[in-house]
Write a structure and sequence with these properties.
Layout lengths: L4 H23 L4 E7 L3 H17 L2 E7 L5 H13 L5 E4 L9 H5 L13 H9 L7 H12 L8 E5 L6 H10 L3 E5 L6 H5 L4 E4 L17 E4 L3 E3 L2 E3 L4 H4 L5 E2 L6 H22 L3
Helix pairs in contact: 1-10, 2-10, 6-7, 6-10
Bound molecules: nicotinamide-adenine-dinucleotide.
Length: 283
């Protein structure tokens, strides 16, 4: 069965639209998300455009801060500090990657945890690790929401995550651990990758290599989620060879139309949750 991220994201966003208009009625103000884009990376420009489109659909106010490719670290930091101090801003998103030579952590650490809608701050990552309430990174949260949407029981399952990035692989593994999976994290130095993957009831792939996972790496009846986005001559493809794997998997997500739209829906959900928490805390 195909897990349709596009359809699921639409239903999440439609539900949020209601909640956002209730928020406005109740608290007499709009929810605001600041989006910081530095430079002219074409993929980042597309992501930002899609995120702003989603805010428009839901009724969240977006504040775009566009900075030139050759901006200095200090210039970027100043903008983020202003947004952090601005009480009308509920969420701050700094589109990654930042231009070469800019230390992303120096920028991200200026986002207060309560406005960190991407869930990248040390405080939010730490709380996730400790199993405490936190803002969870949008992509892994989207993957978990997709798995739950088909009522798949994760308890006790062998889950393998390929990829150990801070924004996908690591938080994904933590979320699956919280769901009582037995989790293995694989990466570029992993030995016997095929053998490990063949044992996975749940296989999450986030490596950035077009059509890397073939059917010999997939257990019969596994649930396979493809996070990869790879631009090829044949358009955008995932990290999983969809045609090759689809008949072996019990559930599989497509690319495009899988995790991508869910990431944006989760960004909207995190923004709403941050705004609600801020008003409840009198901010
Ligand atoms: P990254 O480059 O930071 O990390 C890639 C990871 O894959 C690394 O941990 C590396 O060790 C591992 N890896 C690379 N080659 C491997 C191999 N041959 N075998 C095993 N492991 C290998 O990437 P990322 O930011 O985590 O993104 C991964 C992919 O997911 C990319 O295609 C990216 O575009 C995509 N992505 C999609 C979304 C979305 O919304 N759908 C969001 C974020 C990232």
């Amino acid at each position: 069965m195909i897990i349709d991220g596009k359809a699921l994201s639409l239903s999440v966003k439609t539900e949020l639209k209601e909640k956002v208009s209730d928020f406005e009625r109740q608290f007499g103000r709009k929810i605001s998300l600041a989006v910081v884009l530095v430079g002219n990376n074409p993929a980042s420009q597309v992501y930002v455009k899609n995120k702003i489109k989603a805010t428009e659909f839901i009724g969240i106010n977006s504040v775009s801060v566009i900075l030139k490719e050759d901006s200095t670290l200090e210039e970027i930091k100043d903008k983020v500090i202003n947004l952090a101090d601005d009480s009308s801003i509920d969420g701050i998103l700094v589109q990654l990657p930042l231009p070469k030579g800019i230390d992303e952590n120096e920028v991200l650490k200026l986002i207060p945890p309560e406005k960190d809608v991407d869930g990248f701050s040390s405080a939010n990552v730490g709380n996730l690790l400790l199993g405490k309430p936190s803002v969870v990174a949008c992509t892994p949260l989207g993957v978990l929401t997709m798995i739950k949407s088909v009522n798949y029981d994760l308890k006790g399952k062998n889950a393998v995550v390929i990829g150990r990035s801070n924004i996908v692989g690591k938080p994904m593994a933590l979320l699956l651990l919280q769901e009582d999976c037995t989790v293995t994290i694989c990466h570029s130095k992993t030995k016997n990758l095929t053998e490990i993957c063949k044992n996975a009831d749940v296989l999450i792939v986030a490596i950035g290599k077009a059509n890397f996972v073939k059917e010999d790496m997939v257990k019969d009846g596994a649930l396979v989620i493809d996070v990869g986005i790879n631009r090829t001559e044949n358009g955008i493809v995932g990290d999983v060879d969809f045609e090759n794997v689809k008949n072996k998997a019990s559930y599989i997500s497509p690319v495009p139309g899988g995790v991508g739209p869910m990431t944006i829906a989760m960004l909207m959900q995190n923004t709403y949750n941050c705004a609600l928490k801020r008003v409840k805390n009198g901010l």
